[in-house]
Task: inverse folding
């Protein structure tokens, strides 16, 4: 049989690395699990979501978009929000 200290140490080291990787993966999954922290409100299913119009208003208030762009996008959102007429007329 061929057993020297080096080959045993090599396999032993590999198993240590496997277990460290398994434990690190479990810890990472637990830390990043949704709903575990208070700042994960966006991933919580019961959290209220912003409507597209609210997002548009917030972006305009923050200065991310111009007044013209705000009006154009608002018109598109309002047009798309209207229920379709029966018969497909425009």
Result:
């Amino acid at each position: 049989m061929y057993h020297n200290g080096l080959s045993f140490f090599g396999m032993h080291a590999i198993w240590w690395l496997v277990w460290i990787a398994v434990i690190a993966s479990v810890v990472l999954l637990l830390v990043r699990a949704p709903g575990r922290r208070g700042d994960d409100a966006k991933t919580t299913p019961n959290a209220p979501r912003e409507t597209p119009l609210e997002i548009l208003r917030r972006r305009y208030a923050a200065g991310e978009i111009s007044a013209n762009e705000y009006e154009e996008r608002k018109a598109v959102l309002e047009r798309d929000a209207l229920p379709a007429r029966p018969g497909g007329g425009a």
Observations:
- The first helix runs from residue 5 to 31.
- Residues 34 and 73 are 32 Å apart (CA to CA).
- The mean pLDDT is 79.
